[in-house]
Amino acid sequence: MPIEKIIEFILYISPGFLASELYHAFHPVRERSDFVQVSWSLIYGVCIYAVLLWLDGHILNGTLGSGSGVFPRGSFLISLFIAGILLGVILIAIHWLRFKLTAMYSSFRFLEPAPQSVWAYINKPIFKNWAVVFLNDGAVYLGWISNYTFNPNNENQDFLLKDARRVNEKLEVIYTIDCVYLNTRDVNRIEYVEGDTP
Questions:
Q1: CA pair distance 128, 153, nearest whole angstrom
Q2: Positions of CATH 2.30.30.100 in the chain
Q3: What 3-state class would DSSP assign to 191?
Q4: Using CA atoms, how far apart are residues 57 and 34, in angstroms rounded to an integer?
Q5: pTM, rounded to two decimals
Q6: Could you give the C-alpha distances from 100 to 65, 103, 108, 147, in angstroms and in order?
Q7: How far apart, in whole angstroms, are the C-alpha atoms of residue 156 and residue 149?
Q8: DSSP 3-state of 148
Q9: 3-state helix, strand, coil in the chain (%, to 5)
Q10: pLDDT tens across 145-168, in order?
Q11: Alpha helical stretches, state H, 27-163
């Protein structure tokens, strides 16, 4: 394959790959196949490349140097890099806006992104419920999940229970704890209770 074609392919795919990875760093999904990852990177990258070529040819009068031979000028390469980051930020903002709109207005429910798992859905910021956590060893804790991990590629997830109480099966407080670190592999079930106080 000629070196020009390899360079062109890399120029197409790099900014799209950057945008895709930045977006998925904030909104994890299950590990994608190489084909899916390359396809989305190419789609994003071609869009970025086309927009920059148009801007450089019609508005910037060639300032970026997009048509300067096999090896584009440094200014065009930097523009590709910045455009990739910008597209990633835009994708993150759109995702965040969809969550906000659906949380504020029920008529926008159709815009809500599909949750990657029940775990990610129930721990969204719009839910402020208290959690009653029943562990496999019989221990029961009451508190609210302040932090949690969500890695779709892992079967078990870590979470932190704040303002916690160790309780018995009747939910009578045995003692209070500032926070408890837990992992879902040790959990039998979690019940969520509405209210400002447990």
A1: 26
A2: 118-193
A3: strand
A4: 34
A5: 0.55
A6: 40, 5, 10, 19
A7: 9
A8: strand
A9: 45, 20, 30
A10: 888 887 777 788 889 888 899 999
A11: 34-58, 74-104, 118-122
